[in-house]
Amino acid sequence: MRDEEKTSRYQVVVNTEEQYSVWPVGRDLPVGWHADGTTGTEQECMDHIDRVWADMRPLSLRLQADCQELTEYRTLSTDTKQN
Predict the structure, then answer these.
(1) What is the residue-wise DSSP string for the chain?
(2) What is the mean pLDDT of the chain?
(3) Tens digit of pLDDT for each residue in 14-42?
(4) Which residues pair with 56 in a beta bridge?
């Protein structure tokens, strides 16, 4: 690891789809991203992301899957009551 990598400061950022990334401190964030409050070396930020980002799917895909599961549950529940 280069000395610059050891001393550079980074922050963890999250987008509207709840996807995480590492971004240099002091650099303007891209549109749609916000800091989650975690700063440190690049490795410290990556370690934090490993701990908190349990489901890699974008938020919209997770919500769609949840809605589909609920619809299937309701259909199954209704079918069971009719029999």
Answers:
(1) --HHHHH--EEEEEETT--EEEEETTSPPPTTEEEEEEEE-HHHHHHHHHHH----S-HHHHHHHHHHHHHHHHHHHHHHHH-
(2) 86
(3) 999 999 999 999 999 999 999 999 999 99
(4) none
Backbone angles phi, psi at 38, to 5 degrees: -95, 130
Q: Which long-range contacts (CB under 8 A, 24 or more apart) does 75-83 make?
A: none
C-beta atoms surrounding 29 within 10 Å: 13
**Which residues does 53 contact at the CB level (< 8 Å), separation at least 6?**
19, 20
Structure tokens at 62: 């997770």
Tell me the C-alpha distance between 11 and 26, whole Å. 9
> Whole-prediction pTM value?
0.69
Residue 13 burial by Cβ neighbours in a 10 Å radius (0-12, 13-18, 19+): buried
